[in-house]
Write a structure and sequence with these properties.
307 residues; 0% strand
């Protein structure tokens, strides 16, 4: 029984990892009072830049750094427009997604159909020798483990650290935070850049580790799912983390169903992860009072020092 469940568990962890990165980054951004709907575009840029650098150098570290920097540049563009110039955050985020997706398609045009051969990780091989959990860890790339560390770090930062308390104060009552001497827009810049960095890692993971190839539409709406996860998880890291693996599990379920010859159109089966994730999270978050209690009070609202 365990031997049959193990491949499903491993596949679920692998499939859910990019959403862990993207959703946790967006969670921090929104806790600071900024609504960045450009996650999809940042993931696309991260994916294509990582693939290009990996093809050129074969160095995974450089590829991830390139993905982070590229996505952070888009995040910086968003911050300048939405935070400094106080443009509508939804409109800027949508424009960022369109720009990032289009630019990614242009940059990756000559790489379509190419594949990367990833050498087995020595760290994974060592982890495979750990008793009990080695059978799982040994089949996972270290970037999957890093996503767990990111989750622990975000949870601790938001709920146990003074810096996290300040960030949440900026998202809840920026005027009060400013009166206490905290640089509200500066904190929002840092949070937005952090969200860009994690979106870049998510995109790099998809193009290099998860699929090891580049094609248009590779991100396949995962950026939108990440934004939805944050909202439906009522801005809680634990729910974001579990919701990401819910999506991963649904993805694996539809692949198993297709291989088993389930008599449903392939288009419907491909949409299954998105449908299941959204339906379940809507059911979880249908408590309107809980949503109002947890939503950052100043989410999406620009701040000016003069009020």
């Amino acid at each position: 029984m365990i031997s049959q469940f193990l491949p499903i568990l491993v596949a679920t962890l692998i499939a859910g990892t990019p959403l862990v990165y993207a959703a946790l980054g967006e969670l921090v951004v929104e806790r600071a009072g900024v609504l960045n709907m450009g996650v999809e575009g940042m993931m696309v840029i991260g994916a294509v830049l990582a693939f290009m650098v990996m093809m050129a150098t074969g160095n995974l570290f450089l590829a991830i750094v390139a993905a982070m920097l590229g996505a952070m540049l888009l995040a910086l563009m968003f911050a300048v427009l939405a935070v400094s110039f106080r443009a509508n955050q939804v409109a800027v985020g949508l424009a960022l997604t369109i720009f990032g997706t289009s630019l990614g398609s242009y940059l990756g045009k000559s790489y379509i159909g190419m594949a990367i051969v990833i050498e087995p990780s020595q760290l994974s091989a060592l982890a495979g020798k750990i008793p009990l959990i080695g059978k799982v860890l040994g089949q996972l790339h270290p970037l999957v483990w890093l996503s767990w560390a990111l989750f622990a770090g975000v949870w601790y930062f938001l709920h146990r650290s003074r810096a996290g308390l300040i960030l949440r104060a900026v998202g809840e009552a920026p005027t009060s935070a400013h009166a206490l001497g905290y640089p509200v827009n500066g904190i929002r810049y840092v949070a937005t850049l952090f969200g860009g960095a994690t979106a870049g890692i998510a995109g790099a993971y998809i193009s290099i580790i998860y699929t090891s190839l580049w094609t248009e539409g590779l991100i396949a709406g995962r950026g939108w799912i990440a934004v939805a996860l944050v909202v439906f998880a009522t801005w809680r890291p634990v729910r974001c983390f579990l919701g990401a693996y819910l999506f991963g599990g649904a993805t694996i379920a539809q692949l198993f169903a297709q291989s088993a010859g389930v008599g449903l159109p392939s288009e419907l089966m491909s949409a299954l992860p998105y449908i299941v994730t959204i339906v379940v999270l809507v059911l979880i978050s249908r408590n309107a009072a809980l949503m109002r209690l947890n939503i950052p009070a100043s989410l999406g609202k620009p701040f000016t020092a003069d009020g």
